[in-house]
UniProtKB/TrEMBL annotation:
This is Lipoxygenase domain-containing protein. Residues 433-444 have a biased composition (Polar residues). It comes from the Eukaryota. Residues 488-507 have a biased composition (Low complexity). Residues 60-76, 476-487 have a biased composition (Basic and acidic residues). Residues 101-443 form the Lipoxygenase domain. Keywords: Dioxygenase, Metal-binding, Oxidoreductase. It comes from Otus sunia (Oriental scops-owl). GO terms for molecular function: metal ion binding; oxidoreductase activity, acting on single donors with incorporation of molecular oxygen, incorporation of two atoms of oxygen.
Length: 507
């Protein structure tokens, strides 16, 4: 039998190489040999010298990527040195778009419409943070909205219980921000709210807010705001929700759930899979997103300084990580879990599911080719070490998350790989790419705003709705107070109007 020696060369310049799959087929006059793929699982390497080579490669990488046990330092998703900016750093929200000039279409539209209820609701579906809204089938006790409060917003011939039962009421809850310490900027104490917002899908299919509470504790200091309040009060209530959404988006939806998880997947891949492993190619789908993590000390962190550098940031990240589930990372499951399969105009869902299916189809082809049977998956010790590394060091071994610690079937492997690739590509694009267009044109997003006058001693108990009488932007007389409203102390209206937000040229 003839022996052929094949050399594959990709050049000797920096980063020369290939992410393509290389295979060899011997073509002769009487036919072709079976396609021989160079990538191999551990079990495919029959020669001891090749097995040793795999182990040596991993050992060399792990020396650089394993934590230093002597310092008690555990490898966890890593945030890049936000502490270097110091407590009094400048507000840098505008830096997000400093080097990128987006087409003016989106910023212009946002600047013209950000105050409108329709656009406020639309942003929960297709804005930068489309993963926090969920169907509301029963109001939580901490948000005591009464049917009478929202009846005018629902229209005639229906009521709140009926709308909830038929799937037209939705809730956004920023509980993760409750009690998070806030920082100071130029000596001024900042404030962060943990609001609840109830939304309704109207007969025209549009989503609109119908009630807002700016804290998690109902009571005298936390009234429920309604669209029938005065224009300024309703606008500022929405602004505080949008402001909380900014923190939730930037720290959790964007940084934690795409950048830092991509870092988890990338490091585990480098630590546990030799370059000849068939799934080592997954790293080519992980390269861009974690690398950007190294640059989050710019506009991202600057805009988040109202939370207080380190304490507030880490508190939100730790809480966010505790609540991450495997379901929430897999779009089809996530949509079903949040009860949003039927909601119209949810383009994030519709486009995302198409891309999820495309990735799943691609992944299935690769997995079926290399694995084929469940026993091959469960028997791949390198693959199992990879999954366990992600489970242990990325998700801190929390079984309640549903994140698998091992993979037993071809189907399980395909779903897990699809989740990894979707998170680092599609999901990141969905929550990242709109920042410049939407974020920089909406004054309620990048600005730490202050103070929270409605939380500073309002004497009116919840669930009694509090109507407002502060002047409207145009100087018109305020809307009539809600039938159940009581007048607020005039002293609480002036801080609203002195907010730096209101001096924005966009207003
Ligand atoms: Fe990003």
């Amino acid at each position: 039998m003839a022996v052929y020696k094949v050399n594959v060369a990709t050049g000797d310049v920096l980063q020369a190489g290939t992410n393509n799959s290389i295979s060899i087929t011997l073509v002769g006059s009487r036919g072709e040999s079976r396609r021989k793929n160079i990538r191999k699982k551990l079990v495919d390497d029959e020669l001891e010298i090749l097995k040793e080579h795999r182990q040596k490669e991993l050992k060399a990488r792990q020396e650089h990527l394993l934590p230093d046990a002597g310092k008690g330092d555990r490898w966890v998703p890593r945030v890049s040195s936000p502490t270097s900016r110091g407590e009094e750093g400048p507000v840098a929200g505008g830096q997000l778009g400093a080097d990128i000039q987006p087409p003016p279409l989106v910023p212009d539209y946002v600047a013209r419409h950000w105050r409108e209820d329709d656009f406020f609701g639309y942003q929960f579906l297709n804005g930068n943070n489309p993963i926090v809204i969920r169907r509301c089938t029963a109001l939580p006790p901490k948000f005591p909205v009464t049917p009478e409060m929202v009846a005018p917003s629902l229209g005639g011939g229906t009521h709140l219980a009926k709308e909830m039962e038929e799937g037209r009421v939705f809730l956004v809850d920023y509980e993760v921000l409750e009690g998070i310490p806030s920082g100071t900027i130029h000596g001024r104490q900042q404030h962060v709210t943990a609001p609840l917002c109830l939304l309704h899908q109207s007969a025209d299919g549009l989503l609109r807010p119908i009630a807002i509470q700016l804290s998690q504790t109902p009571g005298p200091a936390s009234p429920i705001f309604l669209p029938s309040d005065s224009e300024w009060d309703w606008l500022l209530a929405k602004t505080w929700v949008r402001n909380a959404d900014f923190y939730s988006h930037q720290l959790l939806t964007h940084l934690l759930r795409t950048h830092l998880f991509a870092e988890v997947f990338a490091v585990a891949t480098l630590r546990q899979l030799p370059s000849c492993h068939p799934l080592f190619k997954v790293r080519s789908h992980l390269r861009a997103t974690p690398l950007v993590s190294l640059g989050v000390t710019g506009g991202h962190w600057g805009a988040l300084e109202a939370l207080g550098v380190t304490v507030g940031h880490w508190g939100v990240l730790e809480r966010g990580l505790e609540s991450v589930t495997y379901t929430s990372l897999c779009l089809p499951d996530d949509i079903h879990h949040r009860g949003l399969s039927h909601l119209p105009n949810y383009h994030y869902r519709d486009d995302g599911l198409r891309l999820w299916e495309a990735i799943a189809s691609f992944v299935s082809g690769i997995v079926d080719f290399y694995y084929g049977e469940d026993v091959v998956v469960s028997g791949d010790t390198e693959l199992q070490a990879w999954v366990m590394d992600i489970f242990t060091n990325g998700f801190l071994g929390r079984t309640s998350s549903g994140i698998p610690s091992s993979l037993q079937t071809v189907q399980e492997l395909s779903k897990f790989l699809t989740m990894v690739m979707f998170t680092c590509s599609t999901q990141h694009a969905a929550v990242n790419n709109g920042q410049v267009g939407q974020g920089t044109s909406d004054p309620s997003k990048n600005l730490p705003i202050q103070p929270v006058p409605m939380l500073e001693g309002c004497p009116h108990p919840s669930p009694v709705h509090v109507g407002r009488t502060s002047p409207t932007p145009s100087g018109e007389r305020p809307h009539p107070p809600h039938p159940h409203a009581r007048e607020l102390s005039p002293s609480l209206s002036s801080p609203l109007l002195s907010s730096p937000l209101l001096s924005s040229p966009l207003l």
